[in-house]
Structures are given as C-alpha cells and as structure tokens.
Write a structure and sequence with these properties.
2 domains
Length: 309
C-alpha cells in the first residue's frame, strides 16, 4: 500500500510564514492525502491567507478553533498544551484507517520538496520505524542559518510523523506539557524506533523560543524534565551546558528554576512506573557513557548537549 499521509497543523498568527509553508507542502513530490489546518483565533490575517491559498493545495482543509475552547489564544500556549489539544481536535472524527501515517506540522516550517517522499520511503524500508522527522535550521540576524540541535532519537514536535500502528499503540498524543517527549518514550518502550534524519532539513522561520520568550521556553523545558522523571544529575549537567550560552548563566538558571518550580508546585508527572524506569535507565546509560568516555555513548551525549554560541 502506498503511503497516505494525514497532516495536521495547529497554527496561530503565522501570517508572516504561512504562505511559504503552504507552497512548500503543495510542492511535495509525494502529496499528502489530506492536510487539516486548525487556526487558533489568529488576529493577523492567517485564516484569510490560508483561504486565499486553498486553490494551490486542494488537499488542504482549513478549520477554526472555537473561541470558547479553554486554551484558544492563551498566552504561553505551549505551556498550556494548546498544540496537542488542537492536534487532537483535528483528529476528531477522522477515520485513521484511511491513512498510513499521521504527521504534525507547525505553521512556520518550510519543507523541502522531497521531504514527504523520502520520509515515506524510510518508513517503508524499516518496519520498526514508528516516529520520525527531519532536522530544523533557523534564520540568524545576519542572514545565515543555524541548526536547532536535537538528539538523534528525539523528533521535533514541529515535524513529528508517526506510522499509524505506532500512533495507535502509544494511544496518540497526550494533551499536556512534555507531550513530545512522552510520545516517543512510549514508542521506544513498545519496540519502535524514533529518529531525526539529519539529511532531511527544513527551515524553521520563527526562531526557537521567540513566540513566548526564550527564557520562558527554557523554563518550560525544565518543567518538562520534572514531568518526565529526568534525574537531578541529568538536570544539573543540562543546566551547566545551557549556562554556557549567551547571555551566560541565565538559561541554565531558567532551566533549573523550571524544574524546581514544577517540583514545588507538584506538577503532575507521568504516573506510569514502567515509563519512569525506562526513562531513567536510558538517561543513566547516556550519563555513564559521557563520564566513561565510551565513544558510542559520547556521540549520543554530544548530540544531546551540542556546542553552540
């Protein structure tokens, strides 16, 4: 059976980028079977732009998130899990058996023309591949581009693509902060592979953290570390790495602050004991490899803690 990809895109105030995004999807060598775009009460004309571009992407269906939805238009939408909620709204009433893959695509990601075709080919070649995506680069003020560092086993929430069997096995995505770590951890627990392909490069037009503030974004990552049972040693190592970035010290402190604040507020963590054991076992292996200098583990840690300015 040939790949039939369902794309769901929760968007809000993406007028500056959405035209390039729509045209990049319309230009795919393997067109998606269906693309549902959910506009979350945009105030910058995003919905109108989407409607004007509809003829260029006949597989695109534009919907509006009702203003009465609790998270609609909320500040710091990532912390309030607006994206996974809207993603699930897009799935509601959709017959997933009509599709082989389910993909989340953010409204500021410009895909290269071969992206979906290559991704589908790699899923077809590897029956154990459950969740995959490419890497992202983002623009710099001087006109250059820089990669957004990511461990190879992790997939950016902005471009996650699930084999339908994997998606159903993990129970879909949870409507909570850290959803995009929880999903892939469960996938690996169930024997699926999760991977970011370094040769599939997409352009992230909105620099990471700019929507809600960079320090707020790092604080949110600290909260995610608490929710997903990351141990204190891992948090300490991660905070030291972040502290080495400009402005020096602030990102490391924000990460620790987010972790400690989540602990003090007793944020609900993943309750599954098997999940906790699996996560901590994975992290112990990576930390152990870093401390012993094992080349294989060191490579993983280098991708997890990449050097950057």
């Amino acid at each position: 059976m040939s790949a039939r990809i369902l794309i769901i895109s929760p968007v809000r105030n993406e007028a500056a980028h959405i035209e390039r995004v729509v045209r990049s999807v319309a230009a795919q060598e393997l067109a998606p079977a269906r693309w549902i775009v959910l506009d979350d009460t945009s105030t910058d004309g995003t919905r109108q732009l989407l409607e004007s571009l509809a003829s260029e992407a006949p597989f695109m269906e534009v919907r509006t998130v009702a203003s009465s939805t609790p998270h609609a238009g909320a500040r710091d939408r990532l912390a309030k899990a607006a994206a996974p909620r809207n993603f699930n709204l897009g799935l509601a009433g959709t017959e997933m058996r009509d599709y082989t893959h389910i993909m989340k695509l953010d409204g500021d990601i410009e895909l290269p023309p071969h992206y979906l075709r290559v991704l589908a080919e790699r899923f077809a070649a590897d029956p154990e591949l459950g969740l995959a995506g490419g890497v992202l680069v983002e623009p710099l003020p001087d006109g250059g581009l820089r990669p957004i560092a990511i461990p190879r086993h992790h997939v950016h929430g902005a471009v996650k693509c699930y084999a339908r069997g994997c998606f159903e096995a993990i129970g879909g995505v949870q409507e909570r902060l850290a959803w995009d770590t929880i999903d892939e951890t469960y996938a690996r627990m169930l024997g699926f592979r999760t991977i970011s392909f370094e040769d599939l490069v997409s352009l992230h037009h909105r620099p990471w953290g700019s929507a809600d503030g960079a320090l707020r974004g790092v604080t949110r990552l600290g909260e995610c570390a608490y929710i997903t049972h990351y141990p204190a040693l891992w948090v300490a190592l991660r905070s030291l790495k972040l502290a080495a970035r400009r402005p020096y010290g602030r990102q490391g402190l924000a990460y620790v602050f987010g972790y400690v604040r989540a602990a003090l507020r007793r944020r609900e963590r993943v309750r599954d004991p098997a999940y906790r054991r699996f996560t901590q076992r994975e992290l112990r292996r990576r930390i152990g490899g870093m401390l012993t200098g094992d080349p294989a583990h060191t490579a993983v840690v280098a991708r997890t803690f990449p050097d950057s300015g």
